[in-house]
Amino acid sequence: MAEAIIGPLVGKLQELAVSEARALVAVNDDIRSLRDKLMWMQAFLRDADPRRRVVPDEASRVWLHQTRDAAFDAEDAVDEYFLLVDLSRYPSWTRTIIRLVAGFTTQISVRHNLSCKIKAINTRLENIVNNKDKYKHTEDSTDKAVVPWRASTTISVTPTKLDNLLQPPLVSREDKHQELDSALRDGTDCQRVISVTGQSGVGKSTLVRDIYERLVIKNHFEMHALATFPPYSSASDILKLVLRVLTEDDFTLSRKEVHKKLHNELKGKKYLVVIDGEVSTTEWKRILAALPYVVGSRVVRMSKDKPEEPPGNYEHRVIQLDRFDKNATTQLFQQRVCREESSPKYNEAVRNGVGKDYQQDIFDTTEGLPLAIVLLSGLLRTKEFPVEWSAVFDHLRSKQSKRLDSILSLCFDDLPYDLKSCFLYFAALPTNMLIEAQDLVCMWMAEGFLRPKEGMTMEKVGYRYLKELVARHLINLEPLHEHSPEEELVSIQSKVHAFLQIEAQEVNFVEIHSSDDIPSLSTARRLSLQNRMEKYAALTSPMPKLRSILSNFEKEEISKEDESSDEEESKAQKSASICLQCSHHGTKRKEEVIKSCIRQLLQESKFLRVINLQGLEVGDKLPDEIGDVVHLQYLAVTSCSLREIPPSVGRLSNLQTLDVRDTAVENLPEQFWKIKTLRHVFGHRLILPKRVGNLRNLQTLDTVKPDDYGWDRNTLAKLINLRSLFIWELSKDHVKALAIALKKLKHLVILTVHGDGIPSSVFTSSSLRRVEIMELDGMLDMPSEPEDIKSCLPNLLLLSLEKTKVSQEFINKLAELPFLAGLTMDLGSYKDEKLVFFAGGFHSLRRLTVDLVELKKVEIHESALPRLVDLDILDYSDDLEIEVMGECDIVDKLCSDDENLCKKIKRSNGLPRT
To answer: Which terms in the Gene Ontology molecular function aspect does this entry carry (predicted)?
Structure first.
């Protein structure tokens, strides 16, 4: 896929030509010539890429391969040059010294070497073009259009919030909903395994997740957890995920400790555990053996194959999902194909046309498979109705076999050029995993897939691309529920993921280490580590061309018992050398081998731009060699025992993102806080020093706390473009400094403050007009003029309060906020015993969560909360009263979800006297 290779390279050549215009006078013409050639070849490759699927022309395949190799060599030459002489990576005050040290002769030599390489690549590209014309067999094989419609060149979705693209549950599954609901809570005292089976793409996860998220289901069980994981994960990793959901806590436990703690958490409590992922028979038995026997408990498993019978102490219920019939197919297609931004008249015409003219075509093309239906709807929602629709169906009708593969190919080829690289990146990530949207966008940015356009930052462009993929139904957006919008999660269906992996390996986009065999890595440019048994095996190979390395493993602490068990398993399974070496020589030897692997990676892979190591142990401290990887833009080392980042990280003058969440890192070196290119910093209670550099590009600080010297009014003053700020352990001594700093943070969109005190300015400062999400945990210094809230926070969408001790008067002022859609009132957030929602208040509120055990009475007046669709009262006292005046539909839902709470509701007619 040409765009993933040539697109970022063209941008890099442009930057090189501009930034080094004076120093590279003799080379500049060659650079511009190469850039121009690549832009022309980019245009030809965009047409040739989809043609390779239709016309299996070997000459075109050779031409594509040679062009990619030439582009790779050009990228290597440019990166090598930047590595050696790009002086912009050093602080300005040292440039003179470095120039003296480097020497004029060295500069001339390096530039001459670059000039020779660029000229050779230019000549090579000319020969490739000449050979293409010379050996071309037929005009038809290359000139004929692949499809009779024009592929998309622009983004189809209008600017909107990502969560606005959430799709409703699959239609025509009401009978299966009832069957699963009955199997979960039919009142029988047995312990039951429920197997939901069906082929990939039939909607197993969608059905189970929809039922699982219903409050009535969760209230039926004392404990509930849903675990999502890559295929064939170990039982230990899966159980750890279950335990993490149950306890809502990050921890480092050995395998034996996980089993013990999980048993204690579930013992004597009726529980629901959902296993969403493919599990081997052996690991499945281990999972069931680790769960305690509790009458009325349920374990749900999703599987493509016929499920094996569980142990005798479990009752087994099987729910089989099949493809849709013609009517259900039409109904689902109509539900997904219409666009909110289109006129009602157009959408009505589409619905009528589907039912009248295209019903049979849709059913024949998709064969009733829900995945194929939603993919086809995602493709056609970008096509002109009805002209291009007919052309699409005519084309698909000619494909007599592998209809789903044909739909996937069309969906991929129809993407706008800039979007294909971003979509292909999912191949480097494990399937059936929830991926944080913000992490994905940061990696796209570091890879060079995103460029500022139309006045938007790279981040905004990335989120726009993400919305387009969601709108086309190529990836799934997970419901937020308790998550806030900055924690948006996406996932990709296994069939779509398999298609992307084939595409990615076809064009050498990424190498994946997922089995016992280690791929050839001498020319690999991206490496995805997905072998959970041998995490480090691939790191023993030299990878001089590597640009990105990614892993996604569970954090694990190995005990002596686990180590001996692993050794026996390794012998039995004839594992690879590095794993055997580590286990044979004990923990200390293992740590030495791991550190050696990481050091070798940093020394030999000098072109690295993205390091994303999740769950891969690197030792207590990153090697000092990290500072030599000067191209690095994204550094994430998470879910491991890392404690220290070396000062050499300050040399990473291109670094945009640092992520050390779920590690023991608290202090970052002083040099780090002076990197001017920083855009996003993620950690857990990182210490932010009193003085930082001029970080005008910084957009995210998550989460930070003051150092021993405290903050003053100047600490945050230069972070003028900060959009997300998460503060932890704010003492009362720092409240005033924060209040002053907030006056300068005029671009804040997300503000989270946890501490002993919270300044009233969070509700009274006009500088926070852009804030959309606010989470406060701590005593609020009540604003002296609460009437200012409406004008100071006109864009606030979500508000979460805990330990704030606000009053009824304050709640009344919140009710005036024009766009407030979500309000959470956690423990200690409210100081009165009676909470009243008056008529006309909170007219935009859609979700209300109340967790106030000290509350004695709740009043909901008629016409209050008119748009509320989700009301959760989580913890309440036995003597709580709920008085509802007039009609209130949400109360009926509350009654169906919680029978005990329903008994506390008193209805009355009419409005009380004011």
So the answer is: nucleotide binding
Per-residue pLDDT tens digits for 158-186 = 656 666 666 666 666 889 999 999 999 98
In whole angstroms, give the CA distance from residue 611 to residue 93: 29
| pLDDT, tens digit, 9 for 90 and up, residues 647-695 | 999 999 999 999 999 999 999 999 999 999 999 999 999 999 998 988 9
Neighbour count for residue 693 (Cβ, 10 Å): 17
To which residue do tokens 């640009």 refer? 547
**Rounded Cα distance, 409 and 399, in Å:** 12
For residue 640, the SS3 value is: coil
Rg, the chain, Cα only: 29
Residue 866 CA to residue 887 CA, distance in Å, equals 10
pTM of the model: 0.90
Dihedral through CA 782, CA 788, CA 793, CA 798, nearest 10? 50
User: Is the separation of the CB atoms in 742 and 765 below 8 Å?
Assistant: yes
Phi, psi at residue 527, to the nearest 5°? -135, 125
Pair 456, 522: CB distance under 8 Å: no
Rounded to the nearest angstrom, the gap between the alpha carbon of residue 335 and the centroid of all alpha carbons in its chain is: 26
What is the block-wise mean pLDDT of the chain (914 residues), using blocks of 10 residues? 70 69 63 82 73 70 83 86 60 44 58 82 86 62 60 68 64 86 90 95 93 87 93 88 86 80 93 93 93 95 89 92 94 87 82 90 95 95 89 84 87 90 95 93 95 91 94 89 69 95 90 80 91 84 94 71 48 40 55 86 95 93 94 95 95 96 95 96 94 93 88 86 94 89 93 94 92 95 72 94 95 94 95 94 93 93 88 87 82 74 80 44
The answer to whether 727 and 704 are in contact (CB under 8 A) is yes
Q: How far apart are CA 254 and CA 627, in angstroms?
A: 33
Q: Which phi and psi angles does 635 have, rounded to 5°?
A: -125, 110
Cis amide linkage into residue 703, ω under 30° from 0: yes
Burial 623-650 (b: 16+ CB within 10 A, else e): bebbbbbbbbbbbbbbbbebebbbebbb
Residue 876, number of CB atoms within 10 A of its CB? 20
